[in-house]
Amino acid sequence: MTTPSALSDLLCRHDTDGDHCAAVALNVEIAQNDVEQPVHRHRKGQLVLALHGSVTCEVPQALWMVPPQHAVWIPGGMPHSNRATDNARICFLFIEPDAARMPQQCCTLAISPLVRELIQHLAAQPARSAARVTELLLELLVEAPVQQLHLPMSNHPKIRRMARALGKDPSDRTPLAEWAARLAMSERTLARLVAQETGLSFGRWRQQLHLLVALRQLSEGATVQQVAGNLGYDSVTAFITMFKKALGQPPGRYFSRLT
Q1: What's the CA gap between 106 and 59, in Å, rounded?
Q2: What CATH number was assigned to the domain covering residues 4-147?
Q3: What is the pTM of this model?
Q4: How many whole angstroms separate alpha carbon 162 and alpha carbon 175?
Q5: DSSP string, 91-145
Q6: CA angle, corner 179, sides to 175 and 185, nearest 5?
Q7: What's the number of CA atoms in the CB half-sphere (13 Å) around residue 249?
Q8: pLDDT of amino acid 36
Q9: Domain HTH araC/xylS-type: where (predicted)?
Q10: Under 8 Å between Cβ of 90 and 49
Q11: Hey, what long-range contacts does 253-256 have (CB within 8 A, 24 or more apart)?
């Protein structure tokens, strides 16, 4: 099991940036709740794969959610921090620059069972003895579908203030007009600021935050009823409708597909 300091120590011991193999994989198990790796960066690109539980990665201007059987791709050189849920199992895959045509921007990828097995196989043996596995893995990974599982963020202090408040209490249904009053600005100005900084309307931005919180809580074992209540929905049906509209399937079917 890995603690926050042990996680950093693990990466230092392996010196993944000093290894010039095309891809290097590491398995990590988290014993504690809310384990966070401080802001850091790698020369290599990093794929963070959630095998159990979930991981939230924060990068400049966005939060990226990694539910089970998905991965977040972080290009080389990008500062980021990782926070894992209780008893999460994670696999890190570090990819040498130019070894594969990976996205230039941070994104969440849907990971097929075959790709997942190849990553774990690579983690179990020295990368230099798995050249064929690495070649096949990178070829398949380039084709992995991109999922829209992120929350656009901003360094603007008023956007950050709302995000912190909603993160602490996602059931908060304070309307935009009241938020504007709290932040000493007009409703129209705040609406324009949110759209300018995040690319979304306030309502759509808060719904996306709800979706990420829901994915995290469901992956931790909470029931649909509990999550709907935690997010302040008037009914379970309303929550399921939101979830299905965003991800194409109701929560039960979505998570059963990932196992």
Answers
A1: 8
A2: 2.60.120.280
A3: 0.76
A4: 12
A5: EEEEE-TTSS---SS-EEEE--HHHHHHHHHHHTS-GGG-HHHHHHHHHHHTTPP
A6: 130
A7: 9
A8: 65
A9: 160-257
A10: yes
A11: 255/68, 255/218, 255/219
Residue intervals in the chain for CATH 2.60.120.280? 4-147
22 pLDDT exceeds 70?
yes
First to last CA, the chain: 22
| Closest of 62, 82, 54, 60 to residue 205, by C-alpha | 62
Sheet holding 89-95: strands in order across? 23-29, 89-95, 45-52, 70-74, 107-110, 146-147
Residue appearing with tokens 């290009």: 75
Six token digits for residue 161: 């203030």
Cα 53 from Cα 180, distance rounded (Å):
36
pLDDT at position 244 is 94
Residue found by looking up tokens 């759509």 in the block: 204
Residue 237 pLDDT greater than 70, yes or no: yes
Q: Are 102 and 74 in contact, with CB atoms under 8 Å apart? A: no
CA angle 153, 58, 17 (to 5 degrees): 140
Distances (CA, A) of 212 to 3, 81, 135, 233: 24, 17, 33, 15
CATH of domain 153-258: 1.10.10.60
CA 231 and chain centroid, separation: 19
Q: Which residue's entry shows tokens 């209490």? A: 169
DSSP 44: S
- Residue spans in the chain of domains classed CATH 1.10.10.60: 153-258
